[in-house]
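Q: Could you write out the predicted structure for this multi-component system? I'm mainly interested in how the pieces pack against one another.
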Amino acid sequence: MAQVLRQCVVTFVRLGSTKVAHSTPGIRLNNHRLYLKLLGGGVLCQFSLFSWKGSRKPDVDSSDSWMSEPITSLDELKQNGDDMKCKMEAMIMRIQSEFVHAVEKEELEEGGKKFLVDRWLREQGGGGITCVLQDGTVFEKAGVNISVVSGILPPNAVQQMRARGKKMKGANLKFFAAGISSVVHPRNPHIPTVHFNYRYFEVENDDGEKHWWFGGGTDLTPYYLEEKDVVHFHKTLKKACDGHGKQLYPKYKKWCDDYFRVPHRGESRGVGGIFFDDVDEPSQDKCFEFVTDCAESVVPSYLPLVQKHKKDGVSYPEREWQLLRRGRYVEFNLIYDRGTKFGLYTPGARYESILMSLPLTARWEYKHSPPEGSREAQLTEVLKNPREWV
Amino acid sequence: MAQVLRQCVVTFVRLGSTKVAHSTPGIRLNNHRLYLKLLGGGVLCQFSLFSWKGSRKPDVDSSDSWMSEPITSLDELKQNGDDMKCKMEAMIMRIQSEFVHAVEKEELEEGGKKFLVDRWLREQGGGGITCVLQDGTVFEKAGVNISVVSGILPPNAVQQMRARGKKMKGANLKFFAAGISSVVHPRNPHIPTVHFNYRYFEVENDDGEKHWWFGGGTDLTPYYLEEKDVVHFHKTLKKACDGHGKQLYPKYKKWCDDYFRVPHRGESRGVGGIFFDDVDEPSQDKCFEFVTDCAESVVPSYLPLVQKHKKDGVSYPEREWQLLRRGRYVEFNLIYDRGTKFGLYTPGARYESILMSLPLTARWEYKHSPPEGSREAQLTEVLKNPREWV
């Protein structure tokens, strides 16, 4: 899942191919206070999502736990604490660290692997930090990617970046994009796959007029339906939305169901969540608060499901079913996902970061159909007919 | 791999969704004389490809060995032996049977499985016969599909069906398409995957002007490079082409290299073969002879490789590499293949026949790179820089 950010990153690199200027193993500190605070009350915890509001402006306080040095220097981030570009970069650095540490904790508790941290820079400016955990004990593949890029774009490329874009004027537009994107494929089929992506864009017309907007979403792809888990997941996202308007969750829940539809199979990729784009109201700060709340709701919405199911027993048919569903996940990502498609069509794109979302293993069988009344059929029914969960 | 045929089948079904009117286990006779004749001299045999020329006109002599009753009734095929629609249907029925039996023979010799035969009809006319062997001993997944469809199409849909299409006139064009499409994924990584597709189209303008053309190709995707095998494969295709003009093989070999390029990875799907579209010269009969020769060259180009390698020893890393390469195969089919894309975008498409081309299992690893000097690196080198093989 990449959505608009990847698209934007790669339409951007059309102007010159991405080169990994250098790659470092990254700064790995053991400061877990942030995500421990977030994980808080254990399984299905529903603590306040708004505890960070007071410290959001600089948000570099957490920098000692970031996965690597940021793309913009820490000094610059500190000095420009009011600039949304810097605020966004600091926020996604923090969220990346919190999410990676939360996932890694579950993995290490079972004697598994640590994330690999790949920091890459573009020669033309900007770069990203790709964190990957592959072939672990709890997680088969988990990727948490941030990217911060800027440059010049032709207007039709900019136009592609917006789901319902406003007209941009000028031949070559100044452009900035920062975002976090993640997919986690656990090994146990009783733990769902999760995906989230939060992103911020700025585009400046030839006449100096500036546009900015936010986009993002979090969605869940279970292999077996555990209604309680899905309700918890949606409730947590709804809570993050509700603080910014009661209308948001229903609107973005529906957008998510629509976006992740796989038309040729007449089913959804998963049980949804929230999805939005072109968010630029009521103010930049309010939008940022909203996106931050959504991003902060990933850990409490998802990690309890990992904790609850990571030791569940698994049968061979359950694993087979998981692999078949992963095949469907690949179908959506490679055929329909806007960002992946535009990304990969672009020469010089950093395809390893784009394809990080694919599972380690997937399977396709001719005319596979789960037996009537089975738990597999029960999931299929929900994917064909999306439900309200809250 | 579906190319234009699928596109055509599915743009066609836009006018009404495909319904499987009935599905039969198909007629399975043990008359193996045809493919035995083709298999002839054993490993790497290079016998004449033109032995069928004398009997091409009716071509229903082989009907007792077809996988199922044809889509058009046998009587109609017999009575219209001069109509290219009937000649093409009879030819692809024969090729399907010969290829299925040749593949199945290799499988059954090792105590494996038989092909499943799925005959499906469209309520609006036409249909197809899908033959699938899944999770076998020698073959992990093999699909051999024919379809014969006709109806009415808007002109821009017709336009999409041609790689370099001539202008069609009129709002609703009468349309016919018949083709065979196949992908074989063997279990042993020392046997390459093969794909072929041969197709015939007719379109009639509002003013009664008729267009017809042929398209097709055969290409090889090895996991380990065996130069002798690749040379044999290309030589066999070249021989089929050469009888119709020495210029054809080099032209269609290059077209194949271009078509199966995976731009985001800067590598080809495999070691190529031949690929062509819009073939309508010098005459319908000559084109048909050419396409028939190409289709008949599949068994002698590929089956010797199966026979040669099916008992080769396989290590765990070799299997892992095969699965990674299968991931690349999925990437090409779902992201770039014209037919698959347009097919799956169309509501009501028979997606099971379209996705039959996907392997049973595929794998994606972050930044996998084979060690320098390894056999895996040797293959990668050839995929990055396509060679001349003949």
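A: Regarding packing and overall arrangement: Residues 1-55 of chain B have pLDDT under 50 and may be disordered.
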